[in-house]
Amino acid sequence: MKNKFISHLGGLYRSQRNSSYLRFRQFFKFFLCLMTAMSITLYFTARVVPATKAYTTSWIGNTYGGKKWVQNYVEAMYVGSDGTVYTDSTWDEAGREAGIYKDGDVIGPDFELHGWSRVGGKAITVTDKYIYLAMVQGSMGKIPEDYPPEKTAWYCVRRYTLSGKPAGFAGGRGYDKSMLIVSTKSPVTGLAIVGKELYVGIAEANRISVYNTDTMTEVRNFSVPNPKQITVDKQGNLWIIQSKNGSSPAQILHYSSQGKRLPEVIADVVDASAIALDNQGRLLVAENGPRQQVLIYNITAKPTRAGTFGVEGGVYAGVPGEVGDLKFYGITGVGTDAAGNIYVNSNGFNNSGTDLRKFSSSGKLQWRLLGLHFVDNADTDPQSDGTEVYTKHEYFRMDYKKPSGKQWSYKAYTLNPFKYPQDPRIHTSPTSVFFRRIQGKPFMFLTDMYASFMEVYRFNPVTDGYIAIPSAMFSATSMNHGKPVQSWLSNQPQEEKDWIWRDRNGNGAFDQGEYDTRTLDYPYLGGWWVDSKGDLWKTLRTKVGILHFVVQGLDQKGNPIYSSSSMKKETTPNQITDLRRIEYFPDTDTMYLSGFTKDHPPIGDDSGVVGSEIIRYDNWSKGNRTPRWRTVIPYDTTGKREVMTAAMSVAGDYVFAVTGKTSEVYVYKAATGKQVQKLKPGPEVAGESGWIDIPYGIRAFRRSNGEYIVFVEEDLKGKVIMYQLPR
Question: Where does the chain cross the membrane (predicted)?
Answer without folding.
Answer: 27-46
